[in-house]
Write a structure and sequence with these properties.
By secondary structure, this protein is α+β, with helices and mostly antiparallel strands. The protein has eight helices and five strands, in the order H-H-H-H-H-E-H-H-E-E-E-E-H. Strand 2 and strand 3 form a beta hairpin. It is elongated, with a radius of gyration of 18 Å.
Length: 169
């Protein structure tokens, strides 16, 4: 057992993950629900956690990794303190979500799929959040902003960051 696995084993969240897998009876067909639980507990899916889940469910780690990277919902890197997700489904895209995304990138010095170097803000793109009638939709720290405007999104991000810009690259 290497040092990263030792840290993993001492983490109380692991007990919660273990309880979730036990509740699902370690069934292979519960993989998506288990991965959702891992992300809920840890905020992202790292390599050691994926290996742990694979061993616990008796699945090849390549399969678990393949499922985790297939779905846009799962994050493979630790997100920043605040997370902005821009829906780029068709309805949101035609309602100018791309323009909002570009503005957030410029205003807050963070690129899509990345976290600012100070760790305060992550910017992600998602394919569809299911609110097409209310497009464009932007999710900021689990709060959905429907019929989002550039001004609304920028102001909300400024508020959560305490009026400060994130540190430039």
């Amino acid at each position: 057992m290497d040092s990263s696995q030792t840290v993993l084993m001492s983490d109380k969240r692991l007990l919660m993950l273990e309880a979730a897998m036990k509740q699902h009876q370690y069934r292979k067909d519960s993989l998506l629900e288990i991965l959702r639980t891992v992300q809920e507990l840890y905020g992202y899916l790292d390599k050691d956690l994926l290996i742990y889940v694979a061993k616990s469910l008796s699945l090849p780690s390549s399969h678990v990794y393949g499922v985790a990277t297939f779905y846009n919902f799962f994050r493979m890197r630790k997100p920043g303190a605040h997370v902005v997700s821009v829906c780029m489904g068709t309805a949101c895209y035609v309602k100018e979500a791309e323009e909002i995304l570009l503005l957030v990138e410029r205003e807050f010095n963070v690129r899509r799929g990345e976290t600012s170097i100070d760790g305060r803000l992550s910017l992600f793109v998602t394919r569809c959040i299911g609110g097409c009638a209310m497009a464009p939709n932007i999710v900021i720290d689990d709060e959905v902003i429907s019929k989002a405007t550039k001004e609304t999104v920028l102001n909300r991000i400024r508020v959560i960051l305490g009026g400060k810009k994130v540190e430039a690259r």
